[in-house]
Every structure is written in C-alpha cells, then in structure tokens.
Specification:
The protein is mainly alpha-helical. It has three domains: 34 residues, no CATH class; 213 residues, no CATH class; 83 residues. It is 74% helix and 0% strand. The chain has 14 helices and no strands. Helix 10 crosses helix 11. The protein is elongated and about 110 Å long.
Length: 400
C-alpha cells in the first residue's frame, strides 16, 4: 500500500492515465524522466547489464548440458529468468559464425595466392649423394617433379618463375656436390637449357589460355530458364558472371588481386550463412510438425524446439571453434594442451547428435524406438536440405 499511495494524484505524462506504480498500466511509460544526473544513468546501466548477465547464467549452462530443459521451461510458462528463444538463437548464430569466420581467415591466410602451393625445391637428396651418378639421378628426379608441375598447365606466371629459379638452384647445388666429389661439373649450357625451355612452354599455350581467361572473365552466355521471369534470369546471369570473375581472379590473378578475390569470396559466403540459417529454422519446425502431426502440437511449439535446437548447435560450433583456435595457439608452447583440447572437440562433436536425440525424447514424450526412427528421418531430411541450401548460399556468396 505504501507504493500505491506514493503515486496518488500523479498522471502519466504520455496518456494522462492515473499512475498506480512506477509504470503506466495503459501505455507502459515509466514515471521517471530521462533527464537525470549522470550517476543515475550509470546505476541503471549497471543494473541492466547485471540483469542480462543473470539471464545468461541461467540460460547457457542448461542449453549446453540439459537437453530439452529450456524448451520444457518455456512451455510451462517459466520464461522470465531465461533469454527468449529467438534472441538466444540470433545472438549465438552471429557470434558462432563470426568466430568461425576468424578461424577460416587464419587458415586462408596460410594458403598462398592463386590457390596453388608455392614451388619449393629440396636439394637434400643431392647433398646426401655419395657418387656422381647418384648426384645426377637425384637432380633428374627433382627436375622431373618440376616438369610434371609445369605440365599441369594451371601454374600462374609467378609460380612458373619460381619453378625456373628453383631449377637453377638445383643445378647449382648439383655442381657444388659434384665438385666436392671430385667430378667434373655440368656445363653452363646445361645449366641454362631447362630454364629457357620452362619459359617457352607457357608461351606456346598463351593463346588458348588467353581465350580461357577471356571466357572466364565474365563473357559467358546469359542464363535462360523458361519458367523464370526475365528479371530473375538477368540476376542469375549477373551472379554467374561475377562468380566466374572472382574465381578467375583468384586462380589466375597476381598475388594481390588473388588475395583480395579470396577474401571477398570468403566474406560473401559468411554474409550469406546467417540468413540461410534463419530460413532453415522454420523449415526444421515444419519437418517436426509433419513427423509429429498426431501429437496435436501447435506449429509454434515446434518452432520453439527448432530455435533451442539451433541455439545449442551454434553454441557447440562456437565452443568447437574456440577450442581449435586455442589448440593452435597453445600447441607450440605446451603440446599436451593440444591433445586435451582435441579430446574436448571430439566430445562436443559426439554430444551434438546425442543431445538432440535426448531433447526430442524429452519434449515429445514418445518411446525410444519411435523416437529413434523419427530422429533418423528428420535428421536425414534436414541434413540434405541444409546441404543443398548451404551450397546455394556458398555459390551466391562467392558471386558477390
């Protein structure tokens, strides 16, 4: 009664209703004004953050360790102390893909430009040879390996130049070893013979390669699908040409352009993944509705199950990725941490299907045989749908 009497005679500044507490029962506006000292704003901010943190503490551990617990709590009406299903899934989706993107960038940075490994030569066999015949045989083996790489016809000019320099280094190492063994070194003509040939072969293929390069640079035939409108066909044609341009730049461009195209395609793929998953969540709920049609549950109930299931999978993906990144960082300093984190990743991967199966059993209250059967069919259908949609999303992302 004390709180009620303290607001007697006060009216809401927004709608004019008589106030019965700190918030208007008509429009919800607070009785407190926004113009207040700075320390009051800091106090409210801290209170809000602590409240959110409290909900995180109550939400994330059961989400990871108690299959179906949050869903059953939500169905029972106990929702205030937990983060809402959509918000939980949304935040974990963005966070997991962001961290996974960072991990992919670390791996991609280790890949050389143009998608080809840099040509390296190994002169250890030449240096370990004990006779001139072994030196010449080791040299010939290395030269044959370089020639096979050239014969693939896919090496860009900068890698061909590395192959030419590497071949010259091998011949010089062979001459040094021959001199150490007291044998006559190879002539200067033989030293220059193969590098010259290495530059002639790409030149002979210059014309057809230029034609391929021109064709892959965006001059493909327009896409025509009879049952699609012209606007859709034009959009598909533009995407196909942009995809060809990005891929051509990545495979054939100079190192700077190739690295830029590679990063552009990776960023495009990851920008397409969150919207794709938002589409797949209601699809997963439809599958649950179809397989549990006789349980007489509303579609919204299946959607809550789908949201919590995907939130758990995103949380697992986040933890697996963080464990992998941490393992990569700690392994050079403490090898045992790499093995421990590897076991943790394996346990999380195995926990995902186990968790989803137990969750399905607890939420829908069916026997184990029927639960296993429906879990298998739902998982099989969803896996192939998800694979198809992710492939389309990847292609569209690489076409940006």
């Amino acid at each position: 009664m004390k709180q009620l009497t303290s607001h007697e005679g006060l009216h809401c500044a927004n709608c004019g209703a008589a106030m019965q507490g700190e918030f208007c029962h008509e429009c919800g506006q607070s009785i407190h004004g926004v113009l207040k000292p700075m320390h009051h704003m800091v106090e409210e901010t801290v209170e809000t953050v602590l409240h959110i943190d409290g909900r995180i503490v109550h939400t994330l551990p059961p989400l990871l360790l108690k299959p179906g617990f949050l869903t059953l709590e939500y169905f029972a009406g106990r929702r205030v102390r937990y983060i809402a299903p959509f918000r939980l899934m949304f935040v974990l989706c963005l966070l997991s893909f962001f961290v996974f993107h960072l991990a992919i960038d670390q791996v991609a940075d280790k890949l050389p430009a143009n998608g080809h490994p840099l040509v390296s030569v190994d002169s250890s066999a030449i240096e370990a040879a004990t006779s001139p015949a072994e030196v010449r045989k080791a040299l010939q083996d290395e030269l044959d390996g370089l020639q096979r790489a050239r014969d693939t016809g896919v090496l860009p000019p900068n890698v061909l130049e590395q192959a030419r320099v590497g071949e010259q280094e091998l011949r010089q190492a062979a001459n040094q070893r021959l001199a150490a063994l007291g044998a006559a070194p190879m002539s200067a003509a033989s030293l220059a013979a193969s590098p010259a040939a290495a530059t002639v072969k790409p030149a002979s293929d210059a014309k057809p390669r230029d034609a391929k390069r021109k064709a892959s640079g965006g001059t493909s035939e327009p896409i025509r699908i009879a049952w699609l409108p012209d606007v859709a066909n034009a959009r598909l044609t533009a995407l196909a040409r942009q995809f060809q341009k990005n891929w051509h730049t990545f495979k054939r461009g100079d190192p700077a352009a190739s690295a830029e195209a590679k990063q552009r395609m990776i960023n495009g793929v990851f920008s397409a993944l969150p919207p794709t998953m938002f589409v797949m969540i209601p699809v997963f709920a439809i599958l649950l509705k179809l397989f549990y049609v006789f349980r007489r549950r509303l579609y919204m109930e299946h959607l809550i199950v789908a949201l919590h299931s995907h939130a758990f999978m995103f949380l697992s993906l986040l933890l697996i990725t963080l464990a992998g990144m941490l393992s990569t960082w700690l392994r050079p300093h403490a090898a045992w941490t790499g093995y421990a984190l590897g076991w943790l990743q394996a346990a999380l991967i195995l926990w995902i299907p186990t968790y989803l199966l137990i969750m399905q059993k607890r939420v829908y209250h069916q026997g184990w045989p029927m639960t296993l059967l429906k879990f298998w069919f739902v998982g099989w259908c969803y896996f192939w749908l998800l694979t198809l949609v992710l492939m389309v999303a990847a292609v569209l992302g690489m076409a940006r």
